[in-house]
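Good morning N.,

You mentioned wanting to compare the apo and holo forms, so I went ahead and generated the holo version with pantoate. This is what I fed in:
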Amino acid sequence: MTTPLPVVRTVANLRAQVRSWRQAGLNVGFVPTMGALHEGHLSLVRLARTKADRVVASIFVNPTQFAPHEDFEAYPRDEAGDMAQLASAGCDLLFSPTVDEMYPAGAATTVTVEGITASMDGIARPTHFAGVATVVTKLLNQCAPDVAVFGQKDFQQLQVIRRLVRDLDIPVEIVGAPTARADDGLALSSRNAYLSADERKVAVRLNEVLRDAVDRVRRGEPVEATETHAIADLQAAGFSKVDYVETRTPEDLARLGPGPIAGPFRILAAAHIGRTRLIDNMGD
Ligand code: PAF
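and this is what came out, ligand included:
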C-alpha cells in the first residue's frame, strides 16, 4: 500500500519543509496543478521525479484565472482521489492552500506578461493570463523549486511562464512536458470530464484535424488556407464554436503565414463542444 501523501496548507509550512530538504542537500521539483488529476498530471510528476530528489505538487483552483462566466465553481474537485494518485506517482508533498492563504485581504499586485498574451487564449479569455502569471509567480516564490514542470498541452501558458520567469529573474528551470493523450489521440484534460459520450466522439476530431493541418504545413501548403480548412473541418465535425486555429513560432508565438513556411512551427487550436472548451496544439 502507498504511504499517505503529506499535505501542507500554508506557505509557512511549505517553506519549512522545502528548507529542511535543502539543508539535507536535496533539490526540489514542483508541479503546479488545479487538481482533478489525470494521467497527464501524473506524467508531469514522474518527469519531475527524474529531475529532482523531492517533488512537491500543488492543487489550487485559482479563481483569478477564471472569468465570472467560466467554470470556476463547476471545476472538478477531488482532493482525496488526487492525493492517492500523486502518492503513487512518486510525489513527496502536496501544497493545497485556501483562497485566503493565496490571496490575503488587501492583495493588490497582478503580474501581466505583454506580447505573447495578446493573441489566441489572450483574446478568447482576456483576464486569464494575468491570473495564471500572478498565481504561478506566487507559487514559484512560495515553493522556490529548482525545477518546475508544466504541460505542453497549455502551450501558450507554458511560453507565458517561461517569459515571466526570465523577465522576473526567478531562479528556476522550467520544463515543458509532452501532452499525454488517450489511445485515440484526444489530449487529456480535466475538462474532458464535462463531455457526454456523443461529445467525446466529436472531441477526438480536434487532434485529428490538427494532425492533418501539421502534415499540410509540412508539405508546404499555405498556412492561411490550412487554418481555414481546419476550422471548417472542426465545424463540420460538430464543434459549436472555434475560437482559433493559428500557426505560430514555437517560442515567441509570432504569427506565421499566410503562405508556405519553412522552419519550426506550432499549430494551436481552441474549440467548444456545447459548454466544454478544449485546446490542443501540435508541431515541431
Ligand atoms: O495549468 C494549470 O493547471 C494552471 O493554469 C496552473 C499552471 C496550475 C496555474 O493555476
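Strands lie at 7-8, 28-33, 54-59, 93-95, 147-151, 173-177, 241-248, 266-273, 276-283.

Happy to go through it together on a call whenever suits you.

Best,
F.
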